[in-house]
Every structure is written in C-alpha cells, then in structure tokens.
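Incident log, support desk, overnight shift.

02:14 A customer reports that sequence design results differ from what the structure should imply. Their input is reproduced verbatim below. On-call engineer (initials T.W.) acknowledged and began investigating.
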C-alpha cells in the first residue's frame, strides 16, 4: 500500500497530542479527486477540535481516532474518482472539504469531493491559496448569504485583523459598504490599509463614541464588543455571530434592539471559492500570512494561533 506523512491525534488535548506520522494514502471515491496537498491553512477551529470534541461546532465528536486535522488546503489533482469530469489530473486546486467532518488537510494527500473544490487563484502561491478557504467563505457567507449586505450599508466587523476579519473588510468594501472595524492598537494601520473606513482601537475606544448607526454586525470576538455594537445597530438590522458562546447574549440583545440575530457555521462551497478566486486574480482580495511552518512543526503553529493575536493567517507547508 502507498503511504504518506500526516499529522494525527490519538487523543484530544494540548499541542503535544499532535503526531507527525506515516499513514496509508487514501484513494478517491466516486465524485472525488485525490489532491497532493502542498499547503494547509490553520484556523482556530483546528486547535479547538484538537483540544476536545465539540459536536455542535466541529463535528469532531464520534470520529474514529486517530484523527487527521485540518480543512484548508491547496494542491494539485493527482487522481480522479469515478465519474469526475470537472477537474483534470495536474490542475491546481484549493478548498475547504467536508467541513465540519474530517477532511485530513494536514497530510500529503487527501481525497476531496469535487463540490468542495475550486481551481486555485492563478496569481497566488499554494501557500496563499491555502490561507483563504475557511476564513473567506465564513466572511462571504456571513455578509452575503446571511446578512444580505448591500452597497451603501454600514457593517461593523469586531475582529478586523484576524483571518475572517481581514477578508470581511475587503469583501464588504468590494460590495460597496461602509466598514467599521475594531482591532488592537498594533493592528490599527493594517486594518486601515485593508480599506476600513473607521477603525476603532477596542483597548482605548468604544463603538458608541465613534460609530454611526450600523446595518450589519459581524460578531467574532468579545462580548463587550457585541454589547456595544448592539446599541448602535439599526432596528431591523442584522447581527451575525461566528461564536456559539455568544448565541444566548446575542439573541437577548437583538430582541432588545429590534435586530435579527443569527449564529452561522461555515459550509463548503466550490462555487463560492470560484468567485473568491476571481476576486483574488483581479487584485480585489488579498491574503495576509503572518507565518509559514513546515508540517512537522504544526504544534508550534497551533500554539501561536491559540494566542489569538495572529494577523491574517498561519499556513503549513507540505513539500
């Protein structure tokens, strides 16, 4: 049997449970392609899923251990499953397969449903492409699928410098919205460069003192920011949260202000990734990578991500 290198966990826990091991290479089934993974993106859900099973948010509960982590990937198609005509061997692709089920992006090869894949942005490297899917899809689905953000509306983004936030700012500006973003002092200039119209240093300022009325709130970090934003959201406005821990509070605040609250969990979409790739190649969407780690140094990358101060994204290189 053919083998490959991958990162597995045999139990849930801290970064020490991550094991760099040799495992059996998968075969693509009908409707799938086998991808040689050259880079994998790191997201907070990766280390949350590593730490403990969360059936309501990650789908990690009930999986058979050992479990291979990771969802964001970019690579090359090396084999086709039965019935696949959309992709060809040798094509460069990227995606967020199977989320929230096991996708095995932290490995040299993984089998991916073709519906979850898109052709890689031509102008980006594999590492840049791997940093995009989960964060950009989350921003796209929150702003456009759920909140129905329109040109001329005002959106507040609570974590402007992070993975989702730095894409959300750019996507909202592309749509023609006015963007208010909160971030820490060290990231003020970075968030301004992304296109935010108003940048709030949440360590020194409050939304109520600075922001005009808001049509859409994208809630990611901090209950304090959610409380402040809810007091500025228009009646009938949208509060979209990525944090299930904020769901009860968000529903309460929305009821008090006449807004609509929705918690969302990102879902795979090759179709949306195709649109995102088009924006990347047109220079309308850029990706920021703070650091790249070799696959075997994944524990170091997880520890950095767990600090919650990453600017943009972290990526694993799988050469």
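02:41 Re-run completed on a clean worker. Output:
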């Amino acid at each position: 049997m053919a083998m490959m290198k991958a990162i597995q966990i045999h139990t849930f826990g801290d970064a020490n449970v991550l094991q760099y091991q040799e495992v059996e290479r998968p075969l693509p089934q009908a409707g799938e392609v086998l991808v040689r993974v050259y880079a994998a993106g790191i997201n907070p859900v990766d280390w949350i899923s590593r730490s403990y099973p969360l059936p309501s948010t990650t789908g990690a509960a009930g999986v058979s251990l050992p479990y291979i982590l990771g969802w964001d990937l970019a690579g090359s198609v090396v084999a086709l499953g039965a019935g696949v005509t959309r992709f060809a061997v040798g094509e460069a692709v990227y995606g967020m397969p199977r989320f929230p089920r096991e996708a095995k992006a932290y490995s040299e090869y993984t089998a991916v449903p073709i519906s979850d894949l898109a052709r890689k942005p031509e102008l980006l490297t594999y590492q840049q492409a791997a940093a995009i899917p989960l964060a950009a899809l989350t921003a796209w689905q929150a702003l456009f699928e759920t909140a129905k953000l329109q040109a001329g509306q005002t959106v507040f983004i609570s974590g402007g410098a992070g993975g989702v936030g730095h894409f959300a700012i750019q996507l909202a500006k592309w749509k023609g919205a006015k963007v208010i973003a909160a971030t820490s002092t060290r990231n003020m200039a970075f968030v301004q460069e992304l296109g935010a119209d108003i940048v709030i240093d949440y360590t020194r300022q409050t939304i109520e003192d600075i922001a005009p009325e808001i049509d859409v709130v994208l809630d990611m970090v901090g209950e304090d920011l959610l409380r402040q934003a809810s007091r500025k959201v228009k009646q009938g406005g949208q509060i979209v949260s990525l944090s299930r821990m904020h769901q009860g509070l968000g529903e309460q605040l929305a009821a008090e202000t006449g807004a609509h609250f929705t918690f969302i969990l990102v879902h795979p979409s090759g179709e949306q990734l195709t649109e995102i790739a088009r924006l990347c190649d047109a220079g309308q969407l850029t990706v920021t990578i703070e650091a790249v780690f070799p696959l075997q140094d994944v524990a170091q990358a997880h520890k950095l991500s767990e600090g919650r101060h990453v600017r943009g994204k972290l990526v694993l290189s799988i050469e």
